[in-house]
Amino acid sequence: MKDLLIPFPELLDTLRQILVREGFAGDEAHRCAELFAKTDLDGVRSHGVERFGRFLSYIRQGVVLMDKKPVLLSKSGFFERWDGQLGSGNLNAQAAMARAMALASEHGMGCVALAHTNHWMRGGSYGWQAVEQGKIGLCFTNTMPNMPAWDAKEARLGNNPLVIAIPRKNGPAVLDMAMSQFAYGKLSRLAATGQTTDFPAGFNEKGDLTHDPQVVLENQSALPMGMWKGAGLSLMIDLLAALLSGGDSVSGIGKKPLESSLSQVFISLDPKVLGLEAWFADKAEAIITDYLGAEAFEGKSVFYPGQQTLRTRKRNLENGVPVAEATWAQIINELK
Fold first, then answer.
1. What is the reported pTM?
2. Annotated active-site positions, please?
3. How far is CA 46 from CA 36, 307, 327, in A?
4. Which CATH topology does 68-180+225-292 take?
């Protein structure tokens, strides 16, 4: 699969134009396009423009209601519940994290539970949103059933991504991971290029572990990360997301024709308001420094979550953002 290097401003503006044609308001079109474009800028290609066509399809099928915005359902101190009204998932998530951050500025901590929303695309975007304002960010979402419980034949769990982000002067630590060993977006990219995974990715029809991403995609049988531990954590994330928001669980999402009406939680903490400034920066630096000081195996390197992102971002700003030629052709075709 051949890649093209697209200048970031061109990538952003092209996506923006398409969204304007689709009916998004100007500012919303820009912010939505920016979330997609920045995902590829940071090297997370499985959740950026590769999903843009599907996003447009969901709008046209009435799954994503682009004119809908979150509405407040209830509030109690630092905790609020909102209804996403099936609006654009990435814009809903951005708004929810912004509101959690505003609550954190007031209370030291803010928590927003969001029901009836759509796929947030790259979950890490909302962790970066928090750390860029000097705040801690934590968020998670449930998904359609796409992962089996340990020892189960059928998928009753979602791969339920989790994001934890810690601000740091010399580069924030941002963990963005699904509960499956490999995210489905990553498996799709590998399958499209005929590659296999370095580690087992899921199960085949007989329940045996397989490195073949296509088999995992066809069976919706991703391997839980940490095996039974990842399966247990996935269940707990689904419980928290559905119970706190009052929205759908993985089971309810699975009853819909297409993945929709997800439940999500966004948490932010403000170190300044919480009185952590006296030690926050020094402790974070000491922990990361000690971590990076671990001796690596020959030919290997130790990185903390998010460390490579800033390097990738800088390189892609200078050289252009890699986009698969076929994907870019499909995007350009939307402008004709």
1. 0.95
2. 47
3. 11, 18, 12
4. Ribosomal Protein S8; Chain: A, domain 1 (3.30.1370)
